[in-house]
Design goal:
single chain, mainly alpha, 5 helices, 66% helix
């Protein structure tokens, strides 16, 4: 007897969200300026991640094609994650990368079901630190500075 795995209940919504996010991320990636030699340079990693989102969304939608039911129980969390991503981008432009990430990381974990106060506090400190070390120190990418205030002005981390 063969048991056929059923697709996840929210596969259609997740696939659609991944495709929409991938389209938006691709457009945003293409807005990254060329490097000093006129090459794509800093666009490669964001474009690869955007294409991965698109491919994963298509795979998820294809897997859900067999399931005719539409489970709407996760739509609130998906809408919350979309609103958080828009607020995160705005907060980066206003207050810089470190503060925006320190606020967004625990909120994203809350949306994914993490309820540990210690874990959420650790995420608000460790995520900005890890991303800063990987992208800005390790890869040499210049951090997006906030228009109104930026923590890097105080700590001089660039």
């Amino acid at each position: 007897m063969t048991v056929t795995p059923e697709p996840a209940p929210a596969a259609r919504a997740v696939g659609t969200a991944l495709i929409l996010t991938g389209i938006g991320a691709t457009a945003a990636s293409l807005s990254i300026g060329l490097d000093q030699y006129g090459r794509w340079g800093a666009r490669y990693f964001p474009l690869a991640a955007s294409a991965s989102l698109l491919v994963l969304g298509v795979i998820e939608l294809r897997a859900s094609a067999k399931d005719r039911r539409l489970d709407r129980s996760h739509l609130a969390a998906i809408a919350g994650l979309l609103a958080l991503s828009v607020a995160y981008v705005w907060t980066i432009s206003a207050f810089g990368y470190l503060i925006a990430t320190a606020l967004a990381a625990p909120l994203a974990l809350l949306l994914f079901g993490v309820r540990s106060v210690a874990g959420l506090c650790a995420a608000s400190v460790l995520c900005p630190l890890a991303y800063h070390l990987v992208f800005f120190v390790g890869l040499g990418v210049f951090p997006p500075l906030g228009r109104w205030f930026d923590l890097l002005d105080l700590i001089g981390g660039y």
